[in-house]
Amino acid sequence: MRMRRKRNLEPRMEACADLLLARGKPCKNLKEAAETFRALLDLEKVFGNQNPTELEIGCGNGGFLLEKAKCEPHVNFLAVELCTNVILTAMERTRAAGLSNIRFLNIPAEILECYLEQKSVGVIYLNFSTPLPEKSREKQRLTSPRFLEIYKKLLKEGGRIEQKTDSAEFFEYSLNRFEEAGFTLADVTHDLHNSPYAEENIVTEYERNFSEKGLPIFRAVAVKGIDPTDKPRTSAAGAAKEQK
Predict the structure, then answer these.
(1) Number of C-beta neighbours around residue 76 at 10 A
(2) CA within 20 to 30 Å of 10's CA: 127, 179, 182, 188, which one?
(3) What is the pLDDT of residues 181-194, one digit of tens each?
């Protein structure tokens, strides 16, 4: 069902203009835009410091990044969200919280390279991305090969992707694509809330609603540019051992 346009959307977006770094598509053809359009951001100028930068793709209403930004004031955060209705809520929440270390991109993830320098990001967060199980939509999954190639360019050496999902099928798909793309898998868990990683986990509203039904949350870290023998993945076969 199509989301209803927020009341006074444009004036409210304008009121958050200082938080919004980019909006929309430079042209209708995303492939053409990614290849020809460049408006690279000077992140040091944007944030007024040289702090490390982390990126969430599909920030939703901003709950995760607001908590991260509060806990880590010396990290700069970029939030990407395609839906204008949704990103507005995240920006207004950021404004109300008085946080100065979050900025927003209201753009498709396909054109991130138009705005971000290569090797400019330390961490990419993928929290509860839409699984898109239909085979015909595989290229649109945020862990498909075409997106992983973008992430590899944006990530610094040793940078990482942190994924959380409630879909077992999407999780296994993602683990396989990470490895095929040359990432090293670490900290893989098939039941996040009953794992050693639960204590440091920031629980989103969606995540809480899902886990309260007794259903597991899946999490993995995919690291760029390290020896794959350093930290082996926990395979699906090892999930049962993990729960003991």
Answers:
(1) 25
(2) 127
(3) 999 999 999 999 99
Residues in the chain: 244
The sign of the CA dihedral 188, 154, 47, 8 is negative
Q: How far apart are CA 10 and CA 17, in angstroms?
A: 10
CB 166, CB 191: distance < 8 Å: no
Closest CA to 177 of 207, 215, 142: 142
Q: Are 77 and 41 a contacting pair, CB within 8 Å?
A: no
Structural domains in the chain, sorted by start: 24-243 (3.40.50.150)
- The residue assigned the tokens 């997106």 is 147
For residue range 50-99, list pLDDT tens digits in order: 999 999 999 999 999 999 999 999 999 999 999 999 999 999 999 999 99
Distance set, CA 231 to CA 38, 132, 162, 187, 234 (Å): 37, 29, 15, 8, 9
Rounded distance between C-alpha atoms, residue 65 and residue 204, angstroms: 10
pLDDT on residue 240: 41
